[in-house]
Specification:
Elements (H helix, E strand, L loop, with lengths): L1 H14 L14 H4 L12
Organism: Parasediminibacterium paludis
Protein name: Transposase IS200 family protein
């Protein structure tokens, strides 16, 4: 359930046409889940 909600949130900027890829949206934690540096430090379990 958590993964499906997280994917929904990460894909919202893509659905709205703001970016082509979820990891390209600077305000998204999708960057952290993809191994890139986001705006804030996240500690993924």
């Amino acid at each position: 359930m958590f993964a499906s909600k997280l994917n929904y949130i990460h894909n919202n900027p893509v659905k709205e046409g703001l970016v082509d890829n979820a990891i390209d949206y600077v305000y998204s934690s999708a960057r952290d889940y993809a191994g890139k540096k986001g705006l804030i430090n996240l500690y993924l379990l």
